Amino acid sequence: MEKLSEIVLKNGVYVYSNLYKCFEYTRVFLGI
Q1: What is the radius of gyration, based on Cα positions, of the chain?
Q2: pTM for the model
Q3: In this structure, what is the dihedral angle of CA atoms 19, 22, 28, 29, given to the nearest 10 degrees?
Q4: Residues 1-32 pLDDT 10s
Q5: How far apart are CA 32 and CA 24, in angstroms?
Q6: Gap between the Cα atoms of 8 and 15, Å rounded
Q7: What distances in angstroms separate CA 30 from CA 16, 24, 26, 27, one per listed residue?
Q8: Rounded to whole angstroms, what are the CA distances from 4 to 1, 7, 10, 20, 26?
Q9: Biggest alpha carbon–alpha carbon distance for the chain
Q10: CA 5, 9, 17 angle in degrees (round to 5)?
Q11: What are phi and psi of 6, to 5 degrees?
Q12: Dihedrals phi, psi of 5, to nearest 5 degrees
């Protein structure tokens, strides 16, 4: 169980950082 939650946490952080990058690029592209 310890390993599973660790993997989920790492994946969550990875996905979150990717979404944040996409958001930043969109903001810059739209000039907001």
Answers
A1: 14
A2: 0.56
A3: -150
A4: 679 999 999 999 999 999 999 999 999 999 86
A5: 10
A6: 10
A7: 21, 10, 6, 5
A8: 5, 5, 10, 24, 33
A9: 45
A10: 170
A11: -65, -45
A12: -65, -35
Per-residue three-class SS string for the chain: CHHHHHHHHHHHHHHHHHHHHHHHHHHHHHCC
Structure token pair of residue 9:
């946490």
7's tokens: 């993997």
| Type of residue at 9 | L
Q: Which amino acid is at 25?
A: Y
